[in-house]
Amino acid sequence: MHKEWLKKKTSVAEAEASHMVEVEHRAGSPQSGPSELAFENANARWLAGGLDGPARRRVWLAFGHANAGWLALVAKMQEGDELWTFDSPLETWENLCGRTGYSIVRDGEIIASLSWDSWV
Predict the structure, then answer these.
(1) How far apart are CA 68 and CA 55, in angstroms?
(2) How many CB atoms lie within 10 A of CB 48?
(3) What would the pLDDT profile of 31-63 be if each residue is shown by its tens digit?
(4) pLDDT at 63
(5) Which letter does DSSP use for residue 31 in this model?
(6) What angle do CA 86, 90, 93 make, to 5 degrees?
């Protein structure tokens, strides 16, 4: 990641709002929520023959299935850090190796990034 690639200063809230993805959530998945126990109980009933299928639901997550990577990036932020979008130059895209994503900038230095290739 190069400083020249930084495009726009943003916030965690703005980044999450622009990358909300609806994903299927199953009991025991990495994105376990507060109602996880209800899903575990429903799955136990399913295994015992009381339901037609395993408990599933659709939930909205920032960055979808890449949510864990996003949360890991955000966890590195400290007071005073800045979150920036970045985009590699056009020639990198023309050569099929372009990158886009988010970087944390601390005291003028990039300390961590999450790029599109990390999301998929």
Answers:
(1) 22
(2) 8
(3) 444 344 444 554 555 555 554 555 556 677 888
(4) 84
(5) T
(6) 90
Q: What's the gap between Cα 4 and its chain centre?
A: 24
Which of the residue ranges 29-33, 66-70, 111-115 has the most confident prediction, judged by mean pLDDT? 111-115
Size (the chain), residues: 120
Cβ(78)–Cβ(106) below 8 Å = yes
Kindly state the DSSP code that residue 88 receives in the 8-state scheme.
-
Output the furthest CA–CA distance in the chain (Å, rounded).
59
The full set of domain ranges for the chain reads: 1-19+65-120, 20-62
Strands 6-10 and 109-115, by their bridges, are unpaired
Provide the token pair at 109.
Answer: 């230095």
DSSP, res 29:
-
> What is the mean predicted confidence (pLDDT) over 62-82?
91
CA distance 37 to 65: 21
How many whole angstroms separate alpha carbon 87 and alpha carbon 64?
Answer: 20
